[in-house]
Specification:
Layout lengths: L2 H14 L8 H5 L4 H5 L9 H19 L9 H4 L8 H23 L3 H4 L10 H25 L4
Helix pairs in contact: 1-6, 1-8, 4-6, 4-8
């Protein structure tokens, strides 16, 4: 098994399940409504929806960087895209966007070989390997926040 295959597997597990640590992102988001995703049960924190948008943004940034696009640190409106439409239709579209984003990143990983993992990300000081493991860690960090927000909202 190649390292890119292992990374792809970990991206998938963190997103859709069979993760060693506990519930995946999808498992945590299953059954969350738009109203619940937009709620702010803890003052001065991001909502579930904002966190999902943030995860999407960084998966897209990582994919672009892996493909050679020197994406610099994004402005706040790209880093945490605001939620303006809080309808159930918009929430379902966001969840689909999350699925698509994760799949697109995993597809990009499938296209590279292990040697590419050692290359430094354009205009960065870390390798593609570190970036991809960072995305996995990032997704799971925010999954933990989502789990806490669900508990604070009495959703779990």
């Amino acid at each position: 098994m190649t390292e890119t295959h292992r990374i792809n597997s970990q991206l998938k597990r963190a997103y859709q399940g069979e993760a060693w640590h506990g519930p995946s992102l999808c498992e945590l988001l299953n059954g969350v409504t738009a109203e619940q995703a937009a709620a702010r049960p803890i003052p001065n924190t991001h909502t579930i929806w904002e966190l999902v948008n943030h995860i999407i943004a960084w998966e897209q940034i990582a994919k672009r960087r892996l493909e050679g696009d020197p994406v610099k640190n994004p402005p706040n409106e790209m880093n945490f895209p605001p939620v303006s439409d809080t309808s159930e239709t918009a929430w379902q579209a966001t969840l689909q966007h999350l699925t698509d984003s994760n799949q697109a990143l995993r597809n990009a990983v499938k296209k590279i070989d292990d040697a590419k993992l050692e290359e430094i990300v354009p205009e960065a000081i870390y390798s593609n390997y570190a970036m991809l493991h960072g995305v996995i860690q990032h997704d799971l960090y925010h999954a933990g926040q989502i789990a806490l927000l669900k508990k604070a909202s009495n959703l779990s």
